[in-house]
Amino acid sequence: MAISEEAFRPHRVVVLAMDGLLPFELGIPHRIFDRPRDHLRRPLYEVVTCSIRPPGPVRTDSDFDVMVANGPETLATADTVIVPASYEFGPVYEDGVLTPELAAALAHIRPGTRLASICTGVYVLAAAGFLDGRPATTHWADAEHLQRLFPQIKVDPDVLYVDDGDVLTSAGVAAGIDLCLHMLRRDHGSAVANAVARRTVVPPHREGGQAQYIRRPVPEPQLATTTTARAWALGRLHEPIQLRDMAEQESMSVRTFTRRFREEVGISPGQWLTQQRVEHARHLLESTDLSVDQIARDAGFGTAQSMRQHLQAALGVTPTSYRRTFRTGSGING
Q1: How does pLDDT run across 220-263, given as a tens digit for each residue?
Q2: If residue 191 lies in a helix (H) or strand (E), which one and from where to where?
Q3: Distance of alpha carbon 231 from alpha carbon 111, whole angstroms
């Protein structure tokens, strides 16, 4: 059913600015969520920044302060709260406990509000108990410390972000862009997220995880990569692709190719290939009227049943449900 003019209200994203914040990370939600419009050119999101104190200056890790016009009561108006990183979390980072001031601010958040963190912003969510028993991630350099401090959290140090429904966490700095694009994609589909990514001049979806960014004690020799094999596979998703076929594109043994692929991409070739098939299926479900059977063949799943199982595992919905959700937003653009 179409949303009337009277009923329309943009999704409100409140970004929590704390002393020691990184200006780059503070700007990510504004850059990603300020862009999208619906078919009537109405903004899909409203992004505001608030402090844990009354309006005023908030220190950054740079040589300037940020003037924040909203106090902690703004958190009560949020549909989504995003907590960027800070270098001055103090007892939150060191002991895993909230300061009274921060606890009072977070108490404004309504039940059911979607929560997200960028990089070490995860410590705020963890100290508040929002991540108990849940999976989460952070910058790879802090993952071990986060796990020790909060053993009740399932910390994954290898991924760029973790989506656990109403609570999402991301790895360091630029992974905040990945996370915000993912939330945008989840809210309004790939076409909208892709349009924003193009305007921002970033990839709509980065392959692999944090493993590719970790400096290793002994550098790997700079030999051939797996780039050619990945490009070759992407052009043949509709065909059966064997691991040995991909290895042959790089003139490597299967064992060497598999090891090098995981080092570069962060996941196995089979996992990567499934991810690409799922993404291609999502695009076809959103942008075409092809039958589910045809999409399953074009994406390389072979049968509708196989595609249904993979989409259910990756997205938690069936192909039909996914299409019903995102084809209704086909008039939305970035």
Answers
A1: 444 457 889 999 999 999 999 999 999 999 999 999 999 888 88
A2: helix 190-200
A3: 45
